[in-house]
Amino acid sequence: MKILITYSSQTGNTQKIAKSIHSAIPEADILSVSEIINLDYDLIFIGGWIDRATFDETTLTLAKQIFDKNVAYFFTLGAYPDSDHAKDCINNIKNLLKENNNHVIGGYFCQGAIAPKLIAWFSTLTSDHKMAPSEERIKRWEDAKSHPNKEDLKKSKEFALSILNKLNQNK
Question: Is 0.90 surpassed by the pTM of this model?
């Protein structure tokens, strides 16, 4: 089976997850989204960072070019994994991939550090803006700095192997 792990990473978080997945499936090709030449694979792991409750623009563009494939997605986000925002991201990404008749086998995500320039921009917002810094938001930003951690990476490896198991069971 020909497997691709592809990702876009702004801060290095999603790249860490991609490399962790690759360590579980070393026979897979691992390429950044910008290095993709073709999509001639039996299974594609596609990963990105989150922007406006979906993949970042680079990953989004690639995702729209994947048709009739077995796919698994992964992403990192600054929000807590049990948040409504994370649930929206899951739904948006799954629906995006399903639009092109892909078989979405599963997904993995974890919290990841937020880009410092984004935090700097948030800090310029007035207090009445919905994205302005608040005590809760600043705590979440600090919490996100410690991710992906060892447990997140361990879970990403387990995710990768579970995807292969699901595919093998469906043969």
Answer: yes
